[in-house]
What does this fold into?
Amino acid sequence: MRIVWERGAATVRDVYEELLKRRKIAYTTVMTTMGILENKGFLNKSKRDKAYLYRAAQPRMKVVGSMVREFLNRVFEGSAKPLLVHLVEDKRVSREELDEIARLLEEKERKS
It folds into this structure.
């Protein structure tokens, strides 16, 4: 999704070649994943020459929110706390990110 958002539109080959710069991945894996994202309504495709051109069907934040909710439901039975605890204990969240989260929580509390 990130590659499609950055480019505005991309073919499976475009996404595959971009991902290949970072890690080994099979073309069929990219094709299957993009098909799944299309079926879920995250991507739209249109025919361009001999390939399909994919575009984001929804805004980035809406898609990210949906994917995070799906992940939380599937892995953590809908609770964000175990995920956050894991990230903090695994040191994947920086002090700056924790401060930003605290600020957002305070802001949300003030608005309530």
About this structure: The chain has a mean pLDDT of 92. Residues 91 and 99 are 14 Å apart (CA to CA). The radius of gyration is 18 Å. Helices lie at 2-7, 12-20, 27-39, 60-76, 81-89, 95-111.
